[in-house]
Amino acid sequence: MSTLTFQIAVLDAAAESLSAVAAAVSLAGSEGRAAISMMSRAVPGSAVSTHLTAVPIEQLAGSVSAQCRQIAQRVAGGAQTYRDMEAALHSGMVAARGTLPVPR
Amino acid sequence: MRPQELAAWDIPALRRGSADLAHVAESTRAWVLRGDAIGAALATPEAWDGPASEAALSTLHTWLAVAGRLNPALEALAAGLTEAVTWYAQAQEAAATALRAAADAGITVGTDGVVGQPPGPTARMDAEQVAAAAEREAAARAVQAQLDEAFRLAARGDALVASDVGVFTGLEIPGFAAGSTFVDLMAALSVTVESAGRLPTVPAGADPVVVAAWWAALSLDSQLRLAREQPELIGDLDGVPAWARDLANRVLLDEALRELSAQAAGQQPDPLFTPMNEDLYFALAVHEALAQAEAQGRPAQLYLFDLQAGLAAISVGDLDTADSVAVIVPGTGVDVTGDMSAQVARAAEVWAATEPLDESEDVAVLAWIGYDTPNYVEAASQWNAVAGAPLLAATVGGLTARPGNSPRTTIIAHSYGTVTTAEAGEEPGELGADAVVLVGSPGTRGTAGDFDLPDERVFVGEAGDDWIADTWVHGVDPSWEWWYGGTCIDADMPEIEDSDHYHYFDPDSQALHNMALIVQGRYRSVVGCDD
Q: What's the rounded Cα separation, in Å, for the pair B372 and B391?
């Protein structure tokens, strides 16, 4: 495996993992909101219904998730740069092979 | 709280919710661990090296710091809730038992939790009646004691919940509302970033796509420092995300208000002439309009604040995350000091009209006074439109330069704004909007084809009583001449008394409804002139 191929693999994997974390965070936010909503309905009049509903858990998770997704996009951008470099190197080598004598 | 309500609490549902929240809290620890592992893999020089790597890693570390601080707060909340549930369960059981006993003994319990006292023994009662009366009294006392205990147990649960939510209150997280950004969350959690080193050079004047790519490659700390330390460069730089422009422009607005207010306070009142501090009025008007936009319950962003040029723009909705973005281009006589609030009100009306159509689609509407609109004398010339056209084109370019997912973009031009928009259509390159709406146009140059859009995406309309739209001052009336092209929309307003040039954005008007449909890309649902 060439260095570039290795780098692309690492960055692709990292971008994918970060995207997965972003999705998990977003899902957790929805679950948290649903949990708070369920609890609030279960015990009306209690502090759960009057105080806990003030915790903006879905918005928190949404913000954290969006930031994580942006980092994933940055890392994916890095992978793409290496991929472009690899393609350029490859086409350069092919071109060279066609014009230069093969060393013996 | 009524005892009957307490006795009817659904404890199994409370337990399920508590367990779900505990699971969410637990998962935050997993995010941090996973993020740490990803950071370690990326930090290997063989994997990724150079400025882009440093910027991404720095942002990831900031993200980890935020997630790391959220985790203990959430876990404390979940743990406290788990304990509170046991108190609530005992309270519910005690209240239910007390009410059953009261019912069995024929004792009444008030909604305030006070047990009705049965008649006590009297001299006329025989021994058996005296015993029965004493028994009822004792039963009532027992019920009251049990109810008091139920309320005491519930109060213990309440105290725990209030205290655990207080963990968040201490972090000021409840102030973190819908639309708050990651930067707001960082501030709420007191997460700071490294702020040393030289700031990157700002590519002022570059194409918005180039600016957007440059910005995306910066670390979060660089982005924050640029917005805070060089707001005059970032606040109007097309291609920079709206959150950063908003941050920069609010810094500029605060500075302007502070300095101009101090100047005004230091001025000696002239007995003959009271000097008007136009700049201060300008800043106050923006401040007021921004508060008005925030009062809509949606994120509001100060997208443009240029005191020297007399320009400003405020969004209703988050321009960075919206699926659909609309830009309202105003016409003659509109200036920031006198009309920013009215323009924000129009943006709010468009936004509100989109909501019933499709709640799942996020919309942001920009009240844009981003060019020098003509006064009523200048309105006869096209000079202001020609000068404003590149500014409008650059604004649209900046809004659509969002990396990853460009929003659907609509320009809604009114009156002389249609002249400016038509000129923008003739700017080099594509305008970049997905649709254009021209209402109340006093005539424009060119045809709908100049927007490089299909006719089905260029909408023209005018109200029957709009005499300004019939002046043809600047060229062809788009909603009159068939060869102009585009799609004629119903913008007549028979439902509005005195409908004329200034009522296209009135609530419940057909024009506004059509605009909302267009903003959301529902072009085929638009009510046409012949429908």
A: 10
Residue B221 counted as domain residue? no
**B5: distance to nearest CA of chain A, Å?**
7
Give yes or no for A9 touching B (CB within 8 A): no
Which one, of A26, A55, A63, lies nearest residue B66 by Cα?
A63
Instruction: Find all residues with CB under 8 Å of B498, minimum gap 6, and list them.
Output: B465
Shared domain for B385 and B516, answered yes or no, is: yes
What CATH number corresponds to the domain at position B316?
Answer: 3.40.50.1820
Domain total of chain B:
2
Flag if B404 and A73 touch (Cβ within 8 Å).
Answer: yes
Q: Give the whole-angstrom CA distance, residue B370 versus residue B391.
A: 7
Within 8 A of B177 by CB-CB distance, chain A residues are: 56, 59
pTM: 0.67
Residue B317 lies in a domain: yes
pLDDT digits 0-9 by tens, B64-109:
888 888 888 888 888 889 999 999 999 999 999 999 999 988 888 8
- pLDDT per residue as tens digits for the range B474-494: 777 777 777 788 888 888 766
Instruction: Report which of B227, B226, B237, B245 is spatially closest to residue B394, judged by C-alpha positions.
Output: B237
Q: Predicted ipTM?
A: 0.85
Q: Which domain holds residue B308?
A: 288-525
User: Which residues have CB under 8 Å from B269's CB, separation 6+?
Assistant: none
